[in-house]
Design a protein that fits this description.
Blueprint lengths: L2 E5 L2 E3 L5 E8 L3 E9 L6 E7 L4 E3 L7 E6 L4 E6 L8 E9 L4 E3 L3 E5 L2
Parallel strand pairs: 2-11
Antiparallel strand pairs: 1-3, 3-8, 4-5, 4-9, 5-6, 7-8, 9-10, 9-11
């Protein structure tokens, strides 16, 4: 069974940090990314990383978030620093397999509030 499972969300104060993880199982993903969806808004791209290591970031998170992956462990992480209230959202892991099948995780809630 192919699965993407996120973890690491929670409540943090503005200016704080969180690290999200996405554990993949059941397949090799040649492309993985993070998306987020705030209440009442559409799901939006946050960051991605290809199997070769190429990364991209949304302008809103550049310089604050860092995406990484451990191919040996089949995991992807998102280090989030200098968090702002507008970063509050459910964060989703997305993966595309080498056979071009798409998968989403169940999401993890990140709340930035004092």
């Amino acid at each position: 069974q192919v699965q993407l499972v996120e973890s690491g969300g929670g409540l943090v104060q503005p200016g704080g940090s969180l690290r999200l993880s996405c554990a993949a199982s059941g397949s090799i993903f040649n492309y993985m990314s993070w998306y987020r969806q705030a209440p009442g808004k559409q799901r939006e791209f946050v960051a991605d990383i290809a199997i070769g290591g190429t990364m991209h970031y949304a302008d809103s998170v550049k310089g604050r978030f860092t995406v990484s992956r451990d191919s040996a462990k089949n995991t992807m992480s998102l280090q989030m620093n200098s968090l702002k209230p507008e970063d509050t959202a459910v964060y989703y892991c997305y993966g595309r397999t080498v056979t071009n099948i798409h998968y989403w995780g169940q999401g993890t809630q990140v709340t930035v509030s004092s």
